[in-house]
Each structure stands twice: as structure tokens, then as C-alpha cells.
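User: I'm putting together a small comparison set for a docking exercise, and I want a reference complex before I start. The sequence is below, and the ligand is pyridoxal-5'-phosphate. Could you produce the 3D structure with the ligand included, as C-alpha cells?
Assistant: Of course. I'll restate your input first, then give the C-alpha cells for the complex.
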Amino acid sequence: MSPLAPAAAPIALEAARFRAYGPRHIDEIAQRYGMSGDMRDTVRLISEVLPFRVNEYVLDQLVDWAAIPEDPIFRMVFPQRGMLPEDDIGRLAKLVDDPSAKRELRAEVRRIRAGLNPHPSGQKQLNVPTVEGTEIPGLQHKYRETVLYFPGQGQTCHSYCTYCFRWAQFVGDADLRFASPTPDPLIGYLGEHPEVSDVLVTGGDPMVMTTERLRRHLEPLLEIETVRTIRIGTKSVAYWPHRFVSDPDADDTLRLFEQIVASGRNIAVMAHFSHPRELGTDVARRALARIRGTGALVYCQAPLVAHVNDDARTWSELWRAELAAGAVPYYLFVERDTGPYEYFKVPLAKASAIYRSAYRTLPGLARTVRGPVMSATPGKVVVDGVTETAQGRFFELRLLQARDPQLIGRPFRAHYSTTAAWLDDLRLAPDTPADIVAAVRGPQP
Ligand SMILES: *Cc1c(COP(=O)(O)O)cnc(C)c1O
Ligand code: SF4
């Protein structure tokens, strides 16, 4: 970031103590960092509906306060105008100012949230495994070799992304939560499913847990011989790198990673980086160096979102910074249809062009990245590019991952469109094989 950017004095790295800021601290933040009254009111209004959480490090080291509101990190963490329809904002504004309208306000907030597609891609209905007809909470099993595990105490994050597709679980609606308090059901399930080699621990962010808690969830996995890789999906290196450097249990975390490596398994940190600035601080680079020092692998992924990282230069810089830090660029995701989607969405044609322009600039070792990828109902669909044929222009697509292993790696085509932003918006080519048509168009939840 620009050396002029941080308005506040930089905090001493070693002394940094985690402190979360939420909707109740908006005045304090506005005053400390110089947010206009109008911006502050907007953040306050929108955060009635969408989750808002930030911390000292993000505020001091990542946001460029001289560039708000256009600053990409500001857009990434602060709810703002454009994320909800103007009509909804107007109604909210009236209700918030009326102390006698508390119940109406709550009802209005519920109504707006329900209209924001809180559960995209049938994640909940389609992928929860059952044992003797009973659903196992905190697990999703979509692809043969990989189980997703949601530990109960890892369902928040060090800061929230305004584009998060799991936003609904952060706004406190009890029936939207799904997570497991203990690893016992997971261990039982894995015992019966030796085909599962990968456990992807996710959230929220599992790294919000203390090491002691994290250990309680991970150690039992080492008893299951068929589990070969433990992945941790996390944005902590971007939002709170002190977790691996100076937190009281930072060293214990590294010992836990070493223990997993010593058991002959892979531990892979699936790091979410959205912008090269997140890799620009000393503490983030030290965190990555320390993680790599344990023998852990680091793979990087993030969605492409308007207002945050929708240009080729940002991705080129990001992927090269990842490689320089010894991390592997892995997925560029297409944003899902949920939450403030209209604000963040990038059409597939534009996403593909950005991907290719950035990819072209990369050294070979960074061309491990794949994208733009839609994590959709049938599987992970990558847009490989656009082709011109005698029949017209087409998107070249491919299933990188699929519920049905027969479909993995299969290419197919859809008619080119400048506006389509998701698989559902695409018209498949007339010669698309029937099994792919069935998977892509199949029973939608
Ligand atoms: C992406 C994803 C995985 C992991 O897929 P890989 O291609 O192995 O990285 C597993 N489960 C779900 C539900 C996913 O979306
Ligand atoms: S860190 Fe991940 S889970 Fe947390 S808000 Fe951001 S995208 Fe969502």
C-alpha cells in the first residue's frame, strides 16, 4: 500500500492483540480514521442486514483511508451503498430512526435477508451426509475424495468479507447455522468412508479457534489411516497474520502443523487472498514463512469481485506475490449469486478476459492457477476461454470437479454471452453430451 496511507500510527507487531470491531464501533472507527458522516451512516444502515466485523490490523495496515470509499480493502470489509437496493435502504433508514419501530425493523431486516438468496447452490440440501437416515451436522460430502468439515467453534472470521457467500451464517439466525461441536461424527463417518483422502476444515475460519481447540478437532483425524491430507480454509494470513507469528499460541499452531507432517500427511493451508496488499506487510510475509517452515503446503484462492479485484493487474500482482512467498496460486472463483451479488458480480466473459490477461504475465510456476471457476451444483466448472467457430462464439468449459466422477475433466461448450455471470445463465451448445446436459441442467434444489 502507499506509505502515506495509514492514518493511525502503525501498531507494534509483537504487541498486537486481537480486537474485533462490529456495528457498535462504527462511530469510533469513523472518528479514528476519518470517515464522512454520510459514509458512516451508510455503513451503519447496511450492517443492519449484512454482517460487519473488522479488526485493528485490517484498519491500520490494510485499508488505504486516503482512497475510501473506492479503496478495494474498504470495499471488501465495509458494507456500503449499492450492496442493497435503494428502496430497501430507504425503508431501513426510516425504521432505524424510529425507536417505536423495533419490531418492524427486525421484520424488514428478515425480509431483505430472505431476498438475498442466503443458501446458494443447494450446499445444505444436497451434500449433507446421513447415517441411517439422520443428517450429520457439520459435514458436507460432495466430491468422492473430499469431505468438508465445519468445526463448531470456527464459524466466525477475524474480519468479514462483504462478498462472503456464507454471510447468512454470520448474522445470527440460529437455523442458518450448521456446524459440529466435536469431531466424533466426522471420525465415525470417515471410518465408514475410506475413499475420503482429504478433509477440508472450513467455516467461517477455523483459525479463529485457539490452537488447543483446533488440536481437539484435528488430532483425531491422525487416527484415520485413509485420511492423507488435511486442508484448512482460512483468510487469517490476510486478516490476522499474527495468528501464526505473535499470538500467545502461534508457536503451538506451528507445532500442530509439524505433528501432522510428521504423521506422513499433508497439511495444506488454503489461504484466501483477494488483493496483493494483503501480502505486502512484514507480518503477513513472516506468517507465510513460518507456516512453510513447518512443512505445510500453502495454496491460494479467492473470488473475482467487482470493486475489489476486477482487473488483470491486481491478479497478476497477487499471483506473483503468492509465488514469491512460496505459496501456490490455485483457484480464481466466480462470485456466487448470494448477498449483495448485483454489486459484486462480474460477467463470465469479463472474468475470463481478466484471467487470461493476468495469466499471460505469469512465470510458469505461477500458472498453477485455474479459473474462472464456478463452484456450482454439478461441480467445479472452469471457463477455459472463448472460441470463434463457423457456428459462432462459444465459452469453452470443463468440469474440474464433479459429483459424478465420470464427468471430471470433460470439456463442453456454451454460447458466448457478454452478460451471463453463472452457469445457470448459459445456453449449452447443441452438441453437448447428454450426461453433461443432465448434470448441468439436472434437478435444481
Ligand atoms: C472445491 C471443493 C472441494 C475441493 O475441491 P478440489 O478441487 O479438490 O480443491 C471439496 N468440496 C467442495 C464442496 C468444494 O466446493
Ligand atoms: S474470510 Fe471467508 S468465510 Fe470469512 S467472511 Fe471472508 S469469505 Fe467469508
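Residues 20-114 form one domain. Residues 140, 142-143, 146, 148, 200, 375, 380, 400-401 surround pyridoxal-5'-phosphate (ligand 1) (CB under 6 Å).
User: Thanks, that's exactly what I needed.
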